[in-house]
Amino acid sequence: MDWLQRSIPPNHLLRNNIVLLVCLLVLVLFFPLIAQKIKLLVNIMLTGIVLASIFSLNFAEKTRKVLFATGGSTIILLFISFLSDHRVWTLFAFFNMFVYQICIVFFMILHVSRSRDVNGTIILNAVNGYVLIGFLGALLLAMAEIVELYLFGIDTPLINYAGDALPTFYEYLYFSYVTVTTLGYGDITPANAVAKSIVIMIAISGQLYLTVLVAMLVGKYLSMNREEK
C-alpha cells in the first residue's frame, strides 16, 4: 500500500477536489430524481464523496490510514443499509460518514489556513468545506430522527413540512442548506428542541466558516500581491 505514503501531485489534487464537488452537487441537486429512479445511485454518489475526500488533500500517512479505514467502513455500512430494511444500519452508516466528514472539513480548514498561496485547489478546498457543512447538517438531522424513533419511540417528524409521512433525507438536505446559507424560506421549520439545537449548530457553523475562511483567503491573496510587487 505504497499509495498511502505517496504525495499526490497538485494537478491530481485539483482533479480530486473537482470530483468531490461534482458528487456533492449531483447528490444535493438531483437527490429526489436519483432516489426515486435508481436508489443504488445514491450509495454510489455517497461512495464517490468518501473516496474523493480521502484524496482531496495530501494527508500525513497515519491520517490517511485512519481516513481510509473510516471511509472504507462507511462504504461497507452504506451498502449493508441499502440491502437491509432495518434503519439501524443507516444510522451506523450516517454516523461513520458524519465523523469521517467532520475530519475532512477540519483538515480542509487547516490546509487553507496553512497555505501560503491562493490557487485553484485552495479555493476548491474552501468551497467543498462549505458544501460539506450543509451535508453534515443533513446527516445530523437524519441521525436524530432515527435515534428518536428507535431508541425513544418518538414517531413524530423532526421538522414541520408539507408532508404526512416522515421526511426523507432530501428534506433534511434541503432544510440544512437553507439554514446554512441563512435563506430561511420558512417552508420547513424545526419541530422539537433537538431539531432546534441542530439548526442553531448548522447556522453558526456556516457563518463562522464563511467569515473565517473568506478573511483567510482575502488576507493571503493581498499578501501574495504585495510579494509580487
Kindly describe this structure.
With 229 residues, the chain is mainly α. It has one domain (2-222). It has helices at residues 10-37, 39-54, 61-83, 87-114, 120-151, 169-180, 193-228; strands at 159-160, 189-190. It has a two-stranded antiparallel sheet with strand order 1-2. α1 packs antiparallel against α2 (39-54), α1 (10-37) packs parallel to α5 and α3 (61-83) packs antiparallel against α4 (87-114). The longest helix is centred in the last third of the chain and has 36 residues, at 193-228. The radius of gyration is 18 Å and the shape is globular. The termini are far apart. The mean pLDDT is 82.
Radius of gyration: 18 Å
By DSSP, the count of extended strands is: 2
Number of domains: 1
Q: In this structure, how is the largest beta sheet organized?
A: 2 strands, antiparallel
Order of helices and strands: HHHHHEHEH
The low-confidence runs, each spanning 5 or more residues with pLDDT under 50, are: none
User: What class, by secondary structure content?
Assistant: mainly alpha
Strand content is under 5%
Mean pLDDT across all amino acids = 82
Secondary structure: helix percent: over 70%
Distance between the termini: 45 Å
Classify the oligomer. single chain
Main sheet: which strands, in order across?
1-2
The outline comes out as globular
